[in-house]
Amino acid sequence: MIVSPVVFEEIIAGKEEGEPGYGLFLQTDDPVATQDQLDSMDDTASMSIHNSFLSRQADENMMKILSIFVYGFITLITLISIANIFNTISTSIALRKREFAMLKSVGMTPKSFNKMIYFESIFYGLKSTLYGLPISIAIMYYIYYTNQNTFSYAFELPWVNIVIVVFAVFMIVGAAMLYSMSKVKKENIIDALKQENI
Length: 198
What we know:
Elements: H1 5-13, H2 31-39, H3 52-95, H4 97-105, H5 110-146, H6 159-185, H7 189-194
Helix pairs in contact: 3-6, 5-6
């Protein structure tokens, strides 16, 4: 509210002694230049200048830095997990070369062999999601429960992200199985049967 000096004196006349407080809000196209002009004024000792634009910019920069660290960490953990899945499945398939050779030697067709591998991939994916989903939902609820006193929001499951993750798990397991089986298919049945262990 902007008033004349006379009206201002009338407003504060009935108040207690002391320095009257007042504020001025400015909206400008160039907030940095406006703050520089205000800082260059002679009477800045009694003024407190708060630049909302610079505060928001500092908050956005902090969020960018945190996002880089958080998403970098998530990417690193994801790549380590994928490498671990490939390594575990490849080792499991390599240790079963003799078993596969024996099944082929007693008449298992390539179609039946591929069907068996597809079912194993599905079971690997189902087992990992059946263990992983309840644990992750429990962790999400725990994070929500610990933040209830700080933030007020309803607990909701991110269904789209859950579906994407389940699909990604099956894709990674399937890719690992196909990679491992491409090595096994090149093996000679007789040589594989002769091997006692890897």
